[in-house]
Amino acid sequence: MDGLYIGLMSGTSLDGIDAALVEFSDGNIALKGFLTYPYPQALQQALNQLNEQPQASLKSLCQLEHDVAMQFTQATQALLEQTGTASKTVTAIGSHGQTVFHAPDIPMSLQIGHPAFIAKQTAVTTVADFRIDDLANGGQGAPLAPAFHRTLFAHTERLAVINIGGIANISYLSPSDTLGFDTGPGNGLMDDICRQHFGCDYDANGQLAAQTEPDNRLLAQLLTDDYFAQPAPKTTGKDYFNQAWLNRQLTSFSSEQPTPKALLSTLNQLTVETLIQGLKTLPEPPTEVLICGGGAENQTLLNRLQHSLRYPVKTTADYGIHPHAMEAMMCAWLAQQRLLNRPIPLASITGAKRDSILGGIWHA
């Protein structure tokens, strides 16, 4: 079902809602507009607290469900205005929602920002709740991106697409394989340190991390976490790799704590090292690596990653795709696939018993 779609995505970094206007036409996928709509500070703090401590009263959870939906609605309206697009010309919205709890062991995954409000406020059919069908079929419910990357980069030989948001993950595409898994922390822990010690939301271009070397003893301690040695399929989130996790690691490390800059540099290197570990588990080395997400702007991280790899590290901008837009584009694609009732090929990625048609539909 060709036409214009909107994809809405907010990840574990909580920096805002990515909104992408995407056109599907004769098998082609074109990004027509993109923006990031920031969360109000109070809502961002409430969501971050829920990630750190996943306990909430039903009343507060319902309030967040509504408030996040209103922010997703406003992001949609802002994108329509920015691009001069009439809502009646949009076939559907694909909304990921804001993940507040992801627990494949239960198995359940909770994304808030109820799509009924988005559909009614925008007058556009809204597709959402993409993860639960895969979980119901025995999968991890994540990552979803490799299936979209396979569609977007169908003609590549061996490509690794790395998304570095709050959590980092790898998609591996080859003629015989489509694989994907979360490697561990991405920007999330670094962003926490920036807010605590440097009065900024993130380390722009990795400039702070570049000012000192990583603490190799601390890095070795962080790398002892069992998650890093687990084989795929695997998925994680900020409900695990959060400030409480880091504080436990620091407590067991030494009574002499690293400086904030040394800690930031070490966390930067932790993302690099765990990505390299993940790349080493792939069936064959990729011919190139493409970075998307906020980490694509962390030049220190990219330089360190390139220094350790023999194949080129680029960003999706080299393919004409805004690095921040990739996951929002995926949500638009998931909406299109749901309206077409097409199963998403995730079984080889998530460990599900079979591929699933993902998501529910809320009509305007």
Automatic annotation (TrEMBL):
UniProt EC number: 2.7.1.170
Enzyme class: transferase
GO molecular function: ATP binding; kinase activity; phosphotransferase activity, alcohol group as acceptor
Membership in a protein family: Belongs to the anhydro-N-acetylmuramic acid kinase family.
Protein name: Anhydro-N-acetylmuramic acid kinase
Record GO biological process: 1,6-anhydro-N-acetyl-beta-muramic acid catabolic process; amino sugar metabolic process; peptidoglycan turnover
Alphabetized InterPro entries for the sequence: Anhydro_N_Ac-Mur_kinase, ATPase_NBD
